[in-house]
Description:
- By secondary structure, the chain is an alpha+beta fold.
- It contains 15 helices and 44 strands.
- The longest helix has 71 residues, at 28-98.
- The chain is flat and about 140 Å long.
Amino acid sequence: MKKEIKCPRCRRRIQKEDAYCQYCGCHVAEEKKKKRKKKIRRFLVLVIVIVLFLGILLAIAVGSQKKQIQGWKERQLEEWKQKQEKVQADEGDQSQKQNKNQNGEQSQDSQDVKEPGTMKKCANGDTVYQPSVSTVSYDEDTGLLYYENLLIVYLIENSSQEEREALAARVDGTLVGNMSGSMNVIEILVEDTAYADLEQKAEILMEEENVLYSSTEIPMMMENTADENPWEAGEQDKKNNDHNESKPDGNDWWAEAIGAFSAWDYVDSHEQDLANVAVGIMDDGVDAEHEEFQKNGESKIHWLEDYKENLAFDHGTHVTGLIGAENNQAGIRGVADRTDLYFVSWWKEDLFSTGEYVNVTKQMIETMLSEHTACVVNNSWATVIQSREQYLKDTLIGERPVWEEKIAEFLIEKGKIDQKYELYESYQKELETSAKCTSSQMTVMLFELLLNQQERFLIVQSAGNGYDNGGVGFDAQKTGDYCGINEEVYNRLDGETHRLSRSGYSYEKIRNHILIVGAVQETEKGYQMTEFSNYGSNIDIVAPGYDVYSTITEKDDSYTEENPGHKNLRTVKNGIKYGNLSGTSMAAPLVSGSAAVLWSVAPELSAEEVKETLISTAGTARSTCQEDKREEYPMLNLKAALEKVAKKDATHVILETFYNNGEKTHDLFASEENRDQEYAVITGLDQDENVVWTIETEKSPAAEITANTEIGIYEDRYYYAHCGVIYAVRLRDGKEIWHSASSHGSMTGTDFGPDGTLYYCSFYGPDFGAIDKDGNELYEVESFYPGYYWAYEVHYEGDYVDVKMDGTPSGEETVIRVNLSDYSYSVVQE
């Protein structure tokens, strides 16, 4: 049966194979094409109509939003202007009160009164000037924020009070800051307020022979660097903590990734050998009462004498936990939990002046090195750089730091801009100039430390978390501070001062004391830099910085109903003590802790050697940013670093007897006055036959029976006897544990019980004796029976010990059994 179809024109039924319709005569195929084209045209028209309709709706919405934003901006600006007018009115009233002359008339020279700074007297005798925020000003030419009236001067050598005051007088100023010791620094208050004038006076001071460097003081814009993470109640529970370093996973993935568990095994087994090392932490605040920071009933957090104020915040608590959380099985273990911790708390909205930062760093390093062999200073903070979008958003809702408000006040007052949201270009200019200044100050500060023989320190700084503190990363040098120290900065300073290179401290020597740390995460392709981590040629090493589990505070001291705390912190006290954070802030303390561990195991290392060891033994992490010129970064591997610097343990021992000066034989029949001198050389060797330790005994007159006897190895100890005195030394390093109080003759037979008790017999001494593993003499038999002598072999048999005697009344070998329950004995074989 033939198939039928409908004619595309008249819709009557025709045969499928017919080319033409028998009713209307149309060409079937052509008609179908026309029909399809018609449908397509209708569809396109419909699409165009829909697009036009949506475009109209979008235009209406955008227009409405623009009006709303513009209204918001205008309201913000109006509120700001009203606030400024009120402040100016209040300052005007205050000025009038202060400038009334004796006749009650107002002085014509009345000006706005700015709050003065304060001179802080420190416990170590230093004085540091704390300038008021109201004296922060903005220089339009350089785009720099600076303190009016204030200069900082670094001295080459310590000098008298008179000499320092003379320097201040050189620029018609007053000495307000005075620091001596590891950094010789003064601060001078002058009348000038313009930045150009202040720099002119700094140049005058630079002409003085004892001045290393001088400049205008600037504010340090320190912000913690960690991404926001939401916490849930269950996140403090342990998960997948199997200590598998070959496959990092779970809450302890960061510790597994850097080989911390292997390092901890070594540290725990060598606890008594560790050198005393300290780690200083400068952060927003720490919960010193957290369970992970308690040791022997007290907090293990130390405070500097002049900086004891502290607020409990998550960021600082998290960072501190990664370095030094106690090994108490409660939550985590810090990388360097056996080191001493020193903490300085700063509030996020505070502005540290250059002088204040110098004083804090000086005090921290001086305090730590006064009681420790070396120290590390962790800085998990940086200058956060915002994107244009985030900057506009924060400006509109009024969340601007103090220093940015200063820029706004100046530019609006001068009529340079109309509204605060037009400030982004000025903001960028200020950051760029400030970065150069802070890096210069840090370079000179490190030079001061080295110049004053403070060399056993390392400064560790986080690289920063990209734009908006969690966005796409950028070159870390843009943030300034330690991250911005490079050869260009050094050469510029050397050109200005002509004193850096001449003093013998090259750029490399200064850089040897700095470690800049980026953040990595674990992926299917291995370790890769996180998208947010800053990058670049100044990054020395990278470490885990994504979803890192550590201590947080169950109390937030910034929380009140009026002040809900930092935007990066929880605002509810929910009792959680552990949580996850991401950021280069988390990577930096892992490196700080690792450096401290290396120094505690190998205190003879220099700062340069510690840094080189961490980098040369590191693994590899790949870069993920297309703009990054580096493809790979060294990934922290504490296990490998420790294996490189730790001394290998001895596994076996050789005892050799010598006479006089190295001879192997001696004259048995020499007269007493001509008798040779006997001594032993005992050598501990590792598994590769390398010498680990050597003991040489004192010389004693040679006799028929040797004065030196090898007893042997039991567990982690090696035993030998010299002139009848028994010695127990640590097998791994040869350090003496104990020696017996008296002589026990010439050892002929020994054996050990399962509890480490040593059983022995001897010639020309006791027939039998027992000494426990701590060196306590438990029992001794001078002679079993008359006529029995030459005890030559001992065998521990559980409840008793058998002693073989060669000399007996019968002339036959005899076994005497000693009952260990009461040390009674009897002959059991003759």
